[in-house]
Amino acid sequence: MPCRQCALQQGAPHGHLHVLSKPITSQTGGKIETFYSAPIIDGVTVVSYGDLIKDVKKVNKMENSKNVRGVLAIAMLMLAAAFVVPNASAGAMMYAGGEGDNDMTSFGPAGGKAHFMAYVYNYGDADYSGVNISASFDDASWTADIVYFESYYTGAHGNGTADLGGLAFEDIDMVMGIISIPGSAENGDSVTFTATFEADDDSAMVEFTVAVTDWVAFSEDETQSYVEGDNEVDCAASASCNIYSITVLNLNEDDISSNITIGYSGADIGWTVAGDDWDQTDTATLYGMEGDEEYIISLEISLSGVNFPAGVATLAFQAWDDSGYNQPFFIVMNATIADYFDVGVSGSGSKTVPASGGEVSWEVTIKNMGNTDDSFDFSFDTADADGANWATTGTDSGSTSNLGWKGSGEAAVHNFTVTMTVPGGLGAGSSHGFTMSLVSSSSGATTADQSFSATVAQAYGLTLSSPDDATKAPGETAEFAYTITNTGNGDDSYAVVVSGPSAYGPASDQVEVTVAAGETGQFVVSATVPADKQAHTQSGDFTVTVTSEDPGTPIFTEDAVKVTTAQVYDLAFESGAKSISVVQDSSGGITVNLTNSGNGPETVTFALDGAPAFASLSATDGVVAPGSTISVTVTLAPTTDDATDSTIFTITATGGSGTAVSSGTLTVDVTKKSTGGSDPGTDDIGDDDDGGIPGFGLLAVLSALGMALLLRRR
């Protein structure tokens, strides 16, 4: 039998454990990349139970189970490395875990087999005299005796239960579980299988899931390469398209009547999936399968968008049937995308200047539109503007920094500003400008020239005042008074448009304001704070746009205002009086609740008013969130020196606004201590707390326990 103690003490050579991502090799030699990869210890691959796909009817189940044991033995080494040896006071301590075909789930058809591995580890410092494992299911029709247990280390075995013998401290045992799935089970059934370890007075349970399925879908395709931008319709001839296949396998000798569907889970607009079996709903459906049938779905997958950089991409598909069964792992395909170079420029174009002349500017954006990093050289031709004595700035030749690929956001963008100054006194329609050219540093590709020009137009103009932002309570309306000044040379009608958060109902009292040349006009913008807004909430910008009736390019101006929600203060204790009777030399408590009905958090201070000297508060301050309640408790602990009488008092809470509120009347009756009997103990009046500590997940428990043991070791 294998040496359990040696596995823990020695581990991998030199104590090194490496977990690498590698294709799984089945016993028939094929690569199965859709299941989890096997860990590797110093270059020796331990094959995982990934052979369900092609070898389900060919591979000896016991041999597969041994493969699983190898994987789990490595997992136990990892587990052991996370713990330290406890001190002498720890005693025997049990940890249990397990593994299925895919995490804690294993698959098999009705009447077939499902395989699991459960393990138990004594990480205390004392031995267990005897360990038993037993089986149970959450479905009464699945009886314990359909489970065959066998210890990997001792060979102990049994149906439904097995006596594993003793378990020394720092020792492990791994138990193979083979479930004979009832022939009455139906495809899509999911049953919880619980393996329970019992050792002396300790016990631990490991829960698995048995998924009953007649079929499995997978792909064994190698990585394929793509080049962006090839519009060839024939996929086989296109550099932007490749043909992949998905194999669907009937695990039974009997026919399958269920409809099996394959769908694309990597729903990215950069990829297009097509094929004879692929329909308009972006799925492929098999309408039943013959016994032992293997059906291959051929897919034409095209790189049709701009959402992937050069390098490696992963495409994922999901499989399910119309009985409600979903295959619990993705079908994964891999691709490589070649370098593609391109560039885009925005910000160029024609500008209009008034008859008085002036400076116009362009915010130029150079964007890398390739799928890999690139830089670009730019140059300007200003001969036309120079000939008209229209001065330009920012038009020297230069280069961008290295820009990220087109999908990298701001990292793909280079911005700069160019300006041109137009002299005054020129006739309407006078126009001049300059051009810009770009060259890719990586590919040498040149873009078309970008043109920048300015044209003198008829004089129109306006200015708009900018009122201050407002602060209002929920339900109140803020008003912003605006003044338009017509700086043009003729009457003008200005359209007023208000946009912003719709919940505030922003609006203008006028949609159009007519103003004579050199005169002013007014309008008012209003916004009402919603009743449910929290204190200090800002509305976001209300943008006010005022546009001239200029028949050419309209002149407009914008302003932005916002509303801040004022805080409403509303603290109150629960209503009603409370009382308590406390025996001398004992203690009791009265708990009261304070509710914040305002719209913002309040920092409150608590004080006793009229309370006896033996009274104390559980807290003197606290923060109450809006709509929330906090509790404060008065602890009353009279001694035999305190008089046996009744005292009435209150608790006062003072909030951030400086306003104080008081609790209902609180009464304590002190009674004389009896000369005999047991300790009177304590009594509390107020809210009960019957909550417990919810169970943490296994990982959280292990993490906490590992840290505790480490501290004890130190």
Using the alpha-carbon principal axes, give the shape: flat
Kindly identify the CATH topology of the largest domain. Immunoglobulin-like
Approximate helicity band: under 10%
How many structural domains can be distinguished in the coordinates?
5
Quaternary organization: single chain
Kindly provide the name of the CATH class of the largest domain: Mainly Beta
Query: How many strand elements?
Result: 53
CATH architecture grouping of the largest domain: Sandwich
Q: How can the largest sheet be summarized?
A: 6 strands, mixed
Q: How would you describe the overall organization of this protein?
A:
It is a single chain. The chain is mostly beta strands and 714 residues long. The protein has 5 domains: 4-212, Immunoglobulins (Immunoglobulin-like, Sandwich); 222-337, Immunoglobulin-like; 352-456, Immunoglobulin-like; 463-565, Immunoglobulin-like; 571-673 and 681-685, Immunoglobulin-like. Strands 44, 46, 48, 50, 51 and 52 form a 6-stranded mixed sheet that branches. The longest helix has 21 residues, at 61-81. Mean pLDDT is 81; it is low at 4-89 and 688-714.
